[in-house]
């Protein structure tokens, strides 16, 4: 809404922007082409003005229209040439923007897969989707609009000014003086508006969020008995917001007012000065008319600069953000290729040793895991417990190869290696609290890890996962759409889909992160029965608070503050009477 | 369109026409500036004896030059002011549409943040005025004005140039509207698919990595993106070509004007000083006509927004509340909930959501309500809250049917649900929502009870800290505690606890539940829960399945009577662990 208040920033940032933009693929060639075409456009523009002025002067002098046909056609050709140049420039920059934005998004996606889920969660999944969907669009707009605008602002006014100077010095001086004055006023007024905006930022934010905040909290308002009278407060706040916005706008619009005012006024000055000197015979009609035709063109590029200003500013930010993500170095690239991975698939005799491993959150100095020591052999079932924030999920992420340890040694089958290796990941199934359902058919979702499965195998997996009742209720059977935009499933059903996936791909290592705590007790009970079947013949790591899982576990890891504090069989730990025993007691005691 | 635009246009027609009028004056000043300056220098080129001969055009040029900017500025301000007024009315209207179904939002709009989209849609409607109606109206009037001026000199030519400019004003816009409509639709479809793909990529990133199918995804995504790009390119190419042709048409218009004015001047019908004036002014007039194509092309966009607003906010509330005129006494501290052969279903062809339920809960009793999702727990609580009206049977508070309470139910029953909404205001105001008359001391007392007082005191601005800053400071359990403080201030005899501890770890859960039961001592509690820890302390435990009570009794009764209950209780409180301890 605040269309133009920051136009000034354009000038101050123009210099910093162009350097970055040149680093995109093919940008230099594009700029050169645009610059050449803009020169040509400027030439056509001047020629067109000359011929038009000539025709008008001749007609004014009483020549007949028939004699001027040649000049008129020349005028039209120059005019057409000018807009054809514009057409070409826009085509070139559009293609450039298309190519670059598509590069940006595919690089970003490829990098995202390398950075992994931990990164996605840290950055906020919603933010990332928005960035890649809207950000890429904005970046494209910026890349499309900015180069031609920048070039035409540099080239056209200078060309016009030079030519006007040869025709009439006074007009050239008027125009040359008007431009900086105009820019200074725009900048000053823009800054003032910006300052006013910043001063009131807090109240602005509250006022502008008030409506959506109210909608989100509508049921809470209703329960508190406030929802009915709240309509009045929405009206009041809206009104306040309007008044506040108008006060800022009245200042913000001043900067485009300055643009209009000074450009129009200087055209008027040029016209009057020409008129006065025409009377005195100091100048003739032809040059005077040419100058008058060129004067509005002199200001045109600056005026166009202001349009879509916000779009370009957002786009620039988005483009640079995407680029920054893509440039980020990943652990993958640092480590994965240096280490070989044992070829053998995980079996009864395999072993995994994590020695003294540490992991630090990328954002802070606090370590999420410190001196972790884990040993797992064959098809052991290992439970992980601890308060929230103790590092359980991070440990699961480490074992799953989603993150890599900062220090420490990892051995698989006594061979030193890293876990963020494709050959390790291929052996893992991971079931989180809320398995993600892709928007697609039920079959697509179940066969996600093994796309080549036959329908028969899928049906078997469905049977094992206890999904048959649900599938038989679906109108389209295996082809029923689920996920966003499809049929909604309950938490228990989501888990069963994940179980069906796991049954189908039958990988030897299973990681579970609190898979049942959010479910009602009966669903949890039934799901547990199914899960226990899945555990057979697999190495299992299960992070949970729920006590009933403990008797399924061979060993327990107790975590606190990123460290492993207790380690042993459940019975041993109860006897030890440490944190684990406290945790068990807390839950057994009831309220 | 009819419901979301027309009434507002009618109501605000004065302001709207004022803004059109002022922006028209702005456009006329721009044209006037070029016209008079063309005239001025032509007149001056005749070298009149007296400078006074060109005094009027000089004044004209200066006036137009100055006022063009002034009018433009005024027009922008008035139009924005009007739009903001309309927006504010629309917000209130949307709110009033959504308010009656407030408790059913989750079933109304399941996926995504529909509410945010709605509010965005409404913001976009302002473009209808600012980017379509205003430039469109201005262009039409400028066009009419120009034809009138030319017509006063030469009727036939006015007709010709009028038809010629209609190409710009009507033909191009209509053509681009028709041409781009389908292209836009399929582009939108592709965009949507891309969006789904992206969401799948980001939210399902762990699965992609483990499955080793990243390359397949990238290839599929590239393919889809290419299609979208191609469609977008077709639209862009079309627009560029249209703009080029529009410019060429303007060039043609200049030639036509040259030809006409040249002829007219030669025949002495007009003064030759007007040639330059007419030629210059045609540029500025065509400038107002070019944006019309783009303004019209936007129309389908608005339609999408309207459709969303209509489908969501346009439908009549399915569940209406009929508040009875009987004024239930408000000071009752002892309330008995009583249900008798209660039936409810959401529509004729659905199964009963609540089927033949009878129960009675006396003041101060604690009841646990357990069941799978879809078992009818929410429907039952909605019936108790009076948000739904039973088809058969009765549900009453002290003999008064629940649905008669309407909005006054908030003086009887409080609700603590998972993810209580904390509003974007100060911590103090958030708690105060429970009772707006509450004194500061009462509020502090409530936060002390829920054990948040010290934490709040330590915040940078204490109770005045804004929620959006504190939001990340309060953990899930603490946010529940804040909501609990509200409920304490509300001080109702009945509290419904709707799974307030989902997602909390067992230690936090236990502490929170202890606080809840401690502070709500003496109130009737209806606790929807998914675990059995704590059920020993309940007066009644209700297991719901398919709308019916499957098991109903005290903890001990259920343990004695139902093997199923024993099995489930084992899951929460494993016997062997107890023995080990």
From TrEMBL, chain A:
The keyword Iron does not apply. It is found in: Cell membrane. Keywords: ATP-binding, Membrane, Nucleotide-binding, Transmembrane, Transmembrane helix. It holds the Pfam family ABC_tran. Gene3D superfamilies: ABC transporter type 1, transmembrane domain (1.20.1560.10), P-loop containing nucleotide triphosphate hydrolases (3.40.50.300). One of its GO terms (molecular function) is ATP binding. The chain crosses the membrane at residues 30-52, 72-89, 150-166, 172-193, 249-276. CDD domains: ABC_6TM_AarD_CydD (cd18584). It comes from the Bacteria. It is a multi-pass membrane protein. Residues 33-314 form the ABC transmembrane type-1 domain. Residues 352-586 form the ABC transporter domain. This is ATP-binding cassette subfamily C protein CydD. It comes from Sporolactobacillus spathodeae.
UniProtKB/TrEMBL annotation, chain B:
PROSITE patterns: ABC_TM1F, ABC_TRANSPORTER_2. The chain crosses the membrane at residues 52-71, 128-149, 155-179, 244-262. It is a multi-pass membrane protein. One of its GO terms (molecular function) is ATP binding. SMART domains: AAA (SM00382). Keywords: ATP-binding, Membrane, Nucleotide-binding, Transmembrane, Transmembrane helix. The keyword Chloroplast does not apply. It comes from the Bacteria. Residues 18-301 form the ABC transmembrane type-1 domain. Residues 337-571 form the ABC transporter domain. It is found in: Cell membrane. Pfam families: ABC_membrane (PF00664), ABC_tran (PF00005). Its main location: membrane. This is ATP-binding cassette subfamily C protein CydC.
């Amino acid at each position: 809404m605040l269309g133009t208040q920051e136009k000034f920033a354009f000038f101050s940032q123009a210099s910093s922007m162009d350097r970055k933009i040149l680093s995109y693929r093919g940008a230099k060639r594009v700029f050169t082409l645009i610059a050449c075409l803009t020169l040509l456009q400027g030439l056509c523009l001047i020629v067109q003005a000359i011929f038009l002025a000539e025709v008008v002067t001749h007609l004014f002098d009483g020549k007949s229209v028939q004699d001027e046909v040649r000049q008129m056609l020349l005028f039209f050709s120059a005019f057409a040439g000018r807009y054809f140049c514009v057409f070409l420039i826009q085509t070139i920059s559009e293609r450039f923007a298309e190519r670059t934005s598509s590069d940006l998004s595919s690089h970003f996606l490829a990098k995202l897969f390398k950075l992994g889920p931990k990164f996605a969660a840290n950055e906020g999944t919603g933010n990332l989707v928005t960035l890649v969907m809207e950000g890429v669009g904005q970046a494209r707009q910026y890349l499309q609009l900015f180069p031609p605008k920048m070039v035409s602002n540099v080239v056209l006014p200078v060309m016009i000014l030079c030519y006007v100077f040869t025709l009439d010095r006074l007009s050239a001086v008027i125009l040359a003086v008007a431009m900086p004055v105009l820019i200074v006023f725009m900048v000053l007024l823009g800054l003032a508006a910006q300052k006013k905006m910043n001063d009131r930022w807090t109240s602005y934010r509250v006022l502008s969020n008030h409506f959506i905040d109210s909608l989100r909290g509508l049921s809470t308002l209703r329960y508190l008995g406030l929802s009915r009278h709240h309509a009045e407060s929405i009206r009041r706040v809206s009104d306040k917001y309007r008044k506040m916005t108008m006060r800022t706008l009245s200042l913000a619009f001043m900067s485009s007012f300055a643009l209009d005012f000074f450009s129009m006024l200087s055209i008027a000055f040029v016209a009057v000065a020409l008129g006065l000197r025409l009377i005195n015979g100091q100048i003739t009609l032809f040059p005077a008319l040419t100058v008058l035709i060129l004067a509005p063109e002199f200001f045109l590029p600056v005026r166009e600069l202001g349009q879509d200003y916000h779009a370009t500013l957002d786009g620039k930010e988005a483009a640079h953000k995407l680029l920054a993500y893509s440039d980020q170095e990943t652990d993958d690239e640092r480590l994965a290729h240096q280490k070989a991975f044992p070829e053998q698939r995980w079996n009864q005799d395999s072993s995994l040793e994590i020695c003294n491993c540490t992991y630090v959150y990328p954002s802070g100095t606090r370590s999420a895991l410190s001196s972790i020591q884990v040993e797992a052999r064959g098809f052991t079932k290992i439970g992980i417990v601890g308060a929230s924030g103790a590092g359980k999920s991070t440990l699961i992420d480490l074992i799953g190869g989603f993150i890599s340890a900062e220090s420490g040694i990892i051995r698989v089958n006594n061979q030193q290696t890293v876990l963020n290796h494709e050959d390790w990941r291929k052996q893992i199934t991971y079931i989180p609290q809320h398995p993600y359902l892709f928007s697609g058919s039920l079959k697509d979702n179940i066969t996600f890890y093994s796309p080549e499965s036959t329908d028969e195998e899928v049906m078997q997996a469905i049977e094992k996962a206890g999904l048959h009742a649900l599938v038989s209720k679906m109108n389209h059977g295996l082809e029923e759409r689920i996920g966003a935009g499809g049929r909604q499933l309950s938490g228990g059903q989501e888990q069963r889909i994940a179980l069906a996936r796991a049954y189908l791909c039958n990988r030897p290592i299973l990681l579970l992160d609190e898979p049942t705590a959010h479910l009602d007790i009966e669903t949890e009970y039934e799901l547990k029965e199914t899960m226990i079947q899945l555990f057979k013949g697999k190495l299992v790591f299960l992070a949970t608070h729920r006590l009933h899982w403990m008797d399924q576990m061979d060993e327990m890891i107790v975590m606190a503050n990123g460290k492993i504090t207790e380690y042993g069989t459940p019975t041993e730990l109860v006897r030890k009477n440490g944190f684990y025993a406290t945790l068990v007691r807390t839950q057994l005691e009831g309220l | 369109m009819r419901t979301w635009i027309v009434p507002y246009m009618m109501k605000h027609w004065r302001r709207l026409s004022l803004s059109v009028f002022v922006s028209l004056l702005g456009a006329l000043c721009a044209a006037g500036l070029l016209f008079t300056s063309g005239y001025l220098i032509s007149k001056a080129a005749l070298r009149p004896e007296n400078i006074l001969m060109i005094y009027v055009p000089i004044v004209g040029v200066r006036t137009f030059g100055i006022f063009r900017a002034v009018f433009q500025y005024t027009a922008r301000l008035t139009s924005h002011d009007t739009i903001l007024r309309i927006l504010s009315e629309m917000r209130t209207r949307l709110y009033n549409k959504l308010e009656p179904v407030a408790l059913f939002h989750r079933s109304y709009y399941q996926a995504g943040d529909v509410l945010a989209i709605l509010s965005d849609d409404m913001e976009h409607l302002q473009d209808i005025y600012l980017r379509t109606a205003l430039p469109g109206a201005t262009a039409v009037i400028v066009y009419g004005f120009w034809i009138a001026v030319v017509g006063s000199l030469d009727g036939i030519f006015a007709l010709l140039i009028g038809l010629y400019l209609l190409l710009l004003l009507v033909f191009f816009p209509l053509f681009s509207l028709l041409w781009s409509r389908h292209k836009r639709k399929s582009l939108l479809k592709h965009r949507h698919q891309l969006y789904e793909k992206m969401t799948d990529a980001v939210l399902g990133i762990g699965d992609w990595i483990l499955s080793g199918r990243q390359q397949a995804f990238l290839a599929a995504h590239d393919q889809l993106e290419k299609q979208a790009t191609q469609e977008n390119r077709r639209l862009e190419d079309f627009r560029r070509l249209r703009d080029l042709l529009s410019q060429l048409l303007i060039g043609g218009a200049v030639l036509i004007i040259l030809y006409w004015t040249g002829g007219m001047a030669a025949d002495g019908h007009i003064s030759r000083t007007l040639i330059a004036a007419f030629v210059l002014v045609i540029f500025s007039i065509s400038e107002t006509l070019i944006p019309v194509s783009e303004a019209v092309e936007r129309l389908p966009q608005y339609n999408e927004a309207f459709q969303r607003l209509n489908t969501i906010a346009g439908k009549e509330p399915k569940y209406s509340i009929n508040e009875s005129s009987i004024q239930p006494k408000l000071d009752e501290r002892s309330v008995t909930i009583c249900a008798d052969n209660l039936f409810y279903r959401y529509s004729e062809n659905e199964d009963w959501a609540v089927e033949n339920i009878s129960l009675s809960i006396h003041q101060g009793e604690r009841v646990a309500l357990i069941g799978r999702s879809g078992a009818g727990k929410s429907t039952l609580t909605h019936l108790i809250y009076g948000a739904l009206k039973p088809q058969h049977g009765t549900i009453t508070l002290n003999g008064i049917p629940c649905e008669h309470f309407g909005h006054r139910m908030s003086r009887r029953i409080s609700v603590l649900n998972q993810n209580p909404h904390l509003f974007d205001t100060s911590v103090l105001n958030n708690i105060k929502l429970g009772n707006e008359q509450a004194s500061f001391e009462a509020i502090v007392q409530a936060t002390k009870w829920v054990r948040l007082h010290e934490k709040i005191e330590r915040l940078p601005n204490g109770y005045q800290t804004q929620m959006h800053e504190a939001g990340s400071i309060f953990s899930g359990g603490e946010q529940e505690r804040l909501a609990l403080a509200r409920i304490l201030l509300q001080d109702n005899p009945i509290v419904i606890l709707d799974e307030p501890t989902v997602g909390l770890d067992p230690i936090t859960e236990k502490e929170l539940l202890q606080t809840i039961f401690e502070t709500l001592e003496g109130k009737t509690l209806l606790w929807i829960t998914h675990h059995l820890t704590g059920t020993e302390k309940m007066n009644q435990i209700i297991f719901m399945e398919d709308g019916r009570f499957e098991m109903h009794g005290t903890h001990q009764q259920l343990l004695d009577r139902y093997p199923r209950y024993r099995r489930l209780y084992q899951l929460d409180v494993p016997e062997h662990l107890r023995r080990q301890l």
